[in-house]
Amino acid sequence: MQMAEEAVCAQDRDPYTAFENRVNELNYGNSYFFRPITKSDLQKVDPLKACEYFIKCFKDPSTFTVVIVGNIDPTIALPLILQYLGGIPKPHEPIMHLNRDELKGLPFTFPKTIFREVVRSPMVEEQCLVQLCFPVELKNGTMVEEIHFVGFLSKLLETKIMQVLRFKHGQVYSVTVSVFLGGNKPSRTCNVRGDISISFSCDPEISSKLVDLTLDEMLRLQEEGPTDHDVSTILEIEQRAHENGLQENYYWLDMILDSYQSRAYSGDVGISFEIQDKGRSKVRSSLNPSTAQLALQRILPFPCTKQYTVVILMPKSSPFKLLKSVFQLMRISHGRDAKILAGIAGLVVLALSLWRHSRSANLHSRDMS
């Protein structure tokens, strides 16, 4: 418990944690799955009950699904599997009574309108991080194909936004587009909910301008569609990543796990894998500027400027740095407007005193909680 409390305290001092917590709170509300763990939460945990539950989760081998990937010799691996996994005694009756179709989805609702917020946090090295999020809901009828469409569109957005922000305006080093589709319950009949997020680092002074440029490019793609060259580039990038992945163990491990966790799974991982692979091939063969444009309008809010959230992480200026800059300015402008500068310095000292008072009050309230 002490290690857990220290980890929570360390996260409280991390600027990115405050930024990420606000992103989750804004996009998912006060949902228990996304809510950050606090020291007061840890104090409510019974360590003995937590350990008892953890042991219970791994006590029934009949609920295990073991996935092994690699260049292994079955004659060597099988005895080891039987020794270390087969030796776990099976209980007389199942311990965990779980049915995938009876599980509940995560209780969250994405904001219906536009939200833009700035999170300011003290930093050792000042930086600015921007994240835009758009809600996504995939319909059940063509779910496998829609999930693959999301993957292709994410790469398209990442490529085109990079071209605008880096190669045209020279303001960022990289752009990342990520997808979260874990908000639904693992059912074969329900729609899939989640979001697509776009993140990049930049100069704090132009962060809002780059957000507008990103939205303009996304709206242009929705209204005009990508070019043939854009689509062929995305298909080539995806094919190259697919071929490279076929040579790696992690790729096959992910494919097997995805097939097992897929809503297409009904007891045979091989059949589930074939369904997903056919879905990928179908999307590849149908992808062109027109289908890509329709997918952008169908999967994202259309227009994209009507529903999204933006959170910007900004460095919080230290009063000490502000005071230092004022004194430097006074030294440079000695004898000129001395009274004005002295008055500014007095205001800075007053602001510093108020800041220290509020900081000590916050720390006291944390200790009380």
Automatic annotation (TrEMBL):
Q: Name one Pfam family in it.
A: Peptidase_M16_C
Q: Where in the numbering of this chain does the Peptidase M16 C-terminal domain appear?
A: 54-234
What GO annotations for molecular function exist for this entry? Answer: metal ion binding
Q: What protein does this entry describe?
A: Putative metalloenzyme, LuxS/M16 peptidase
